[in-house]
Design brief:
Protein name (chain B): siroheme decarboxylase
Distance between the termini of chain A: 30 Å
Pfam family, one (chain B): NirdL-like_HTH
Largest sheet of chain A: 4 strands, antiparallel
CATH topology of the largest domain in chain A: Alpha-Beta Plaits
Number of strands of chain B: 6
Domain Siroheme decarboxylase AsnC-like ligand binding (chain B): 67-144
Shape of chain A: elongated
Shape of chain B: elongated
Function (chain B): Involved in heme d1 biosynthesis. Catalyzes the decarboxylation of siroheme into didecarboxysiroheme.
Radius of gyration of chain A: 20 Å
Number of helices of chain B: 8
CATH superfamily of the largest domain in chain A: Lrp/AsnC effector binding domain/regulation of amino acid metabolism (RAM) domain
CATH architecture of the largest domain in chain A: 2-Layer Sandwich
Strand order of the largest sheet of chain B: 3-4-2-5
Order of helices and strands of chain B: HHHEHEHEHEHEEH
Helix content of chain A: 25-40%
Largest sheet of chain B: 4 strands, antiparallel
CATH architecture of the largest domain in chain B: 2-Layer Sandwich
Domain Siroheme decarboxylase NirL-like HTH (chain B): 8-51
CATH class of the largest domain in chain B: Alpha Beta
Oligomer: heterodimer
Chain lengths: 177, 172
């Protein structure tokens, strides 16, 4: 995304200070009480309805993708997490990116810029499995689907989580901030 | 693997998206599931304490809520902890993973590979692009290493949550 696009989007989304306060107060989760909007609004000096209406607007503008119970995939047994990176022909990357996003096991699929010569990869696909062999099989299936448009790929496995804000993953030691 | 009963699974499946923005959202959830609001809240609290759920709440599109990008840096193994701590202290960093490329490590042992091994990967966020670049530059100066900047050009995922194949995971 270019600088100008992002600045344009920020303006178009029109988040004001009160919206930003709600983002900060809810990004680590809602309080689990009967009236969560009131509980969020109280410390911010906002009524429950203001919080609700502002969040509804953020849903409509796409600032909030969804409001959900967010599972911890590690605790559900998805312990192999591979960031696969692909060097895909620019002429085909958009079509193939859309196709791959719909493949089971793929949670995120992004196009990012190359930085030649040290970084030739322009498509990032996050793969999740119960073990690394499962991730390797998913990557092999993607390789076939990409065909001749793909020159090279790698899988970078997460070996340690050093920081994950808002998520409390197991009892792994977290480095002091 | 966490121990979950049928109601836990229904709760998780039903609310991977679209918690209603009504005045009593958990009461609305409860009605859909045919249980009481108090039971839904208690279950969610237990699932969150047991770390089966990382949170219940909004999932933000950080590209729209502000500015962010994926960054990477190549660090010798011995310096990883020190550099990771500096990255984590840096304002705006919200994810930081050590990543390893096993295939590349095999090639390197055989002397068949050259270039840069990016092994620390993190997401830098800021209120806008100007602050984002300032934060990246400040961190580069502190680390005395260049950062690979990988902003999102386009996101293709449809983001329907992550359907959980309970049967494959075993259990009741």
């Amino acid at each position: 995304m270019s600088v100008s696009t992002s600045l344009f989007e920020a303006a178009a989304n029109g988040l004001d200070e009160r919206d930003r306060a709600i983002v900060l107060a809810t990004q680590a989760g809602l309080p689990l009480v009967p009236d969560p909007w009131g509980a969020v609004g109280g410390p911010l000096g906002m009524a429950a309805d203001e919080v609700r209406v502002r969040m509804q607007r953020m849903v409509e503008t796409g600032v909030i993708r969804r409001i959900a119970a967010v599972p911890n995939h590690y605790r559900l047994g998805y312990v192999a997490n591979g960031m696969s990176v692909w060097d895909v022909d620019d002429a085909h990357v958009e079509r193939l990116g859309r196709e791959i996003a719909a493949v089971p096991g793929v949670s995120h699929c992004y196009r990012r810029p190359r930085h030649l010569p040290e970084w030739p990869y322009n498509l990032f696909v996050m793969l999740h499995g119960h073990e690394r062999q499962e991730v390797e099989r998913q990557a092999e299936a993607l390789r076939e689907r990409l065909g001749d448009a793909c020159r090279d790929h790698r899988i970078l496995y997460s070996s340690r989580i050093l920081k994950k804000t808002g998520l409390r993953l197991g009892r792994r030691p977290v480095p002091p901030r | 693997m966490a121990e979950l009963d049928a109601l836990d699974r229904r709760l998780i499946d039903a609310f991977q998206r679209d918690l209603p923005l009504c005045t009593r959202p958990f009461a609305a959830m409860a009605e859909r599931l045919g249980v009481s609001e108090a039971e839904v809240l208690e279950r969610l609290q237990t699932l969150q304490q047991g770390e089966v759920l990382s949170r219940v709440g909004p999932v933000f599109d950080h590209a729209r809520a502000g500015a962010s990008l994926l960054a990477a840096v190549a660090v010798p193994e011995a310096e990883c902890d020190t550099v990771a701590a500096a990255i984590n202290r840096s304002p705006g960093v919200n994810h930081n993973y050590a990543r390893e490329d096993l295939a590349r490590e095999d090639l390197a042992r055989d002397g068949q590979v050259s270039g840069i091994d990016y092994n620390l990967w993190f997401v830098m966020t800021a209120a806008d692009e100007v602050q984002l670049e300032a934060r990246l530059e400040a961190l580069e100066e502190e680390l005395e290493r260049p950062l690979l900047r990988l902003p999102m050009v386009e996101g293709y995922h449809i983001d329907l949550g992550f359907p959980i194949p309970w049967a494959e995971l075993g259990g009741p």
